[in-house]
DNA sequence: TTCTACGGACGAACAGCGTTCGTGTCAAGT
DNA sequence: ACTTGACACGAACGCTGTTCGTCCGTAGAA
């Protein structure tokens, strides 16, 4: 049916057995940035579990094998994804007089950015971030502490501990978001149901075996995630403060 | 060859096409406890990633479907596994005079038990433990804090934060163990290699863009996991102490 | 201009995962 | 002796990360 010579780019209707990629071709040239972009879109839309090599590839109109030319494995993709997100964190200029507030500001900022991107907080818990933006955060947080007069060794370890705290709390928070999303309920509905279950659980305990727990069930249940995050941060900062006052001797 | 009537349980050598389960039958009756036992064995031997429904079933000489009669899904199995492990934690009797030390003792105890069982610490990070042994820990830790004069609301939140800290640090630690195990190297070899990489990374940074990081690279790298865990614990306890001293007003 | 290399793209496959369905079997209750 | 119901479980579904070998389009060499 089709004549042979029409020039190489003429609109030949159908030599279909050799036409390999008609639907997905003439795309963008598939770079690492593009892959991370796509992964970020999937993350925000459907959560970290949806960020699979296959899913990202599908979103780009190709197969999973194509990604491995630009990203050595999934772990690297997640590192790149985390660092992309970390770029959204804005940081203050160190001010010696306000170091306590600034430590909290940085912590809140990181927490907020992580929480804004589904359960991305699971990633830094499974590795030590070494991307350029992670370095930027490290540098600033360390700078704030040093400016505040925290001894260098204390400040260095404190950076590590504060990171661990922020990441783990953000991860814990993201679990609830994930479960709420999976349940299909409204956030308020879900939270009410969850709190109700916990309340029932605590108050139904035998008071003789768990006296403190039953007696203080209201305190154990009071406060939302934000309150508890703030409280833990306050604990850490107060602890650090004790090293500044007595900086001369331990 | 085989005669027909020998009684139903006689030793018939081979009607092989209908003999369904000759290798794996006449086993233990496959209870929930037995499943958790087996999962624990796999966990200790090969890590949490090896604890799959298929693997546990295989270890019991059966298929994965058989487990679902005793355990509703993998999440429940992991909860049971965690609570089994939590039973190994031994707890002190609250002593008002030693509350700071006791908080640390409990934290260390939990940390140690979690670390003794591969990367089981990943489990409590993904859920709120509600098993009987988790309750036992809650009750005791809360009791220690209250005995020490920590205000109830502070104590209640502190339990939550201390848990989060212990779990997340134990998890972070288990990552290194897992990677070391996967690398096939000796622990010392692996650690040396890892520290060397980090050292090289820090010292190769541009000092003008990351002055604090480069200047304090030794402090950032000093201390092993145990030192850092202890330091974070000290921060938390010092923070709590500040609430005890000024218990009257905030 | 023609040929040759080379690197990116990618279809297919491998081994594993959690979970469900339908069937099979055995023991206890009627 | 027969029925009932709980447990056991083979097979399958749809998913995962990763690798192999092959294809193609282009850039450089002849």
From TrEMBL, chains A, B:
Transmembrane segments: none annotated. Keywords: DNA-binding, Transcription, Transcription regulation. The keyword Calcium does not apply. Residues 1-29 are annotated as: Disordered. Pfam families: TetR_C_1 (PF02909), TetR_N (PF00440). Residues 52-71 bind DNA. This is TetR family transcriptional regulator ActII. The keyword ATP-binding does not apply. Residues 29-89 form the HTH tetR-type domain. It comes from the Bacteria. PANTHER family: HTH-TYPE TRANSCRIPTIONAL REGULATOR RUTR, TRANSCRIPTIONAL REGULATORY PROTEIN. InterPro entries: Homeodomain-like_sf (IPR009057), HTH-type_TetR-like_transc_reg (IPR050109), HTH_TetR (IPR001647), Repressor_TetR_C (IPR004111), Tet_transcr_reg_TetR-rel_C_sf (IPR036271). Coiled coil: none annotated. The lineage of its organism: Bacteria, Bacillati, Actinomycetota, Actinomycetes, Streptosporangiales.
């Amino acid at each position: 049916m089709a004549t042979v010579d029409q020039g190489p780019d003429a609109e030949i209707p159908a030599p279909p057995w050799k036409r390999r990629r008609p639907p997905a071709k003439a795309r963008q040239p598939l770079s690492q940035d593009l892959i991370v972009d796509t992964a970020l879109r999937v993350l925000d839309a459907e959560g970290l579990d949806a960020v699979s090599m296959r899913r990202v590839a599908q979103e780009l109109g190709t197969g999973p094998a194509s990604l491995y030319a630009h990203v050595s494995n999934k772990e690297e993709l997640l590192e790149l994804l985390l660092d992309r997100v970390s770029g959204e964190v804005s940081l203050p200029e160190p001010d010696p007089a306000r170091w306590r507030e600034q430590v909290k500001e940085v912590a809140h900022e990181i927490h907020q950015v992580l929480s804004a991107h589904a359960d991305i907080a699971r990633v830094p818990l499974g590795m030590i971030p070494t991307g350029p933006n992670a370095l930027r955060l490290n540098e600033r947080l360390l700078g704030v502490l040093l400016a505040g007069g925290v001894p260098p060794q204390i400040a260095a370890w404190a950076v590590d501990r504060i990171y661990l705290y922020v990441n783990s709390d953000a991860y814990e928070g993201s679990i609830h978001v994930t479960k709420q999303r999976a349940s299909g309920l409204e956030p308020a509905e879900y939270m009410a149901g969850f709190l109700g279950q916990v309340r029932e659980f605590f108050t139904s305990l035998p008071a003789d075996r768990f006296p403190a727990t039953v007696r203080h069930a209201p305190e154990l249940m009071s406060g939302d995630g934000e309150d508890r995050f703030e409280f833990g941060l306050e604990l850490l900062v107060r602890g650090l403060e004790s090293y500044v006052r007595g900086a001369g001797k331990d």
